[in-house]
Design goal:
This protein has 5 helices and 5 strands. By secondary structure, it is α/β, with parallel strands linked by helices.
């Protein structure tokens, strides 16, 4: 199973099957996202110990200097969401793998994921979190050869 995550105050999550087929996409509050991760973790270790490895893709976050003043007083929800993901990864050990996607990949990823109309929005526009998570996941799956690039579709 693949889980793609767009971290932030609201956390976008998209899930994919091993063959790259989409399962679902959803937006969670940070608190509910942590519950989702806990549920996923216990499902991985208790429900089926022979389950495939969980592959987690998340959009990396680095505080840019030009945004530092705007983040003053923030509790840094993206960093907190990433910390929760990394904790689950640490707890699962060999049963999980983490992959980081770059925020700069989102525009191209939106095109590949079937949202070309969103890829041309102004830079200040915020992509819906579930769509961002889905797009990052699709790009990763295409890059890995698990899913076909849309230019090959009829």
């Amino acid at each position: 199973m693949f889980i793609s995550i767009d971290p932030g105050e609201n956390v976008g999550v998209a899930t994919f099957k091993e063959d790259g087929g989409a399962i679902a996409k959803k937006v969670f509050s940070l608190q509910d996202f942590r519950k989702f991760l806990k549920f996923t973790y216990f499902g991985m270790i208790n429900d089926n110990p022979n389950r495939n490895t969980l592959k987690i893709i998340y959009e990396d976050y680095t505080l840019r200097q030009d945004m530092a003043i705007a983040q003053t007083g923030s509790n840094m929800p993206a960093s907190r969401a990433i910390g929760a993901v990394e904790m689950i990864h640490d707890l699962l050990g060999e049963k999980s793998i983490i992959f980081k996607s770059k925020p700069s990949d989102l525009r191209g990823a939106l095109k590949w994921a079937g949202y070309p109309h969103l890829a041309n929005k102004p830079r200040s526009w915020h992509c819906p979190d579930d769509i961002a998570a889905y797009a990052h996941g699709v790009k990763f799956l295409i890059d890995q050869g698990i899913r076909r690039h849309p230019i090959f579709d009829d």
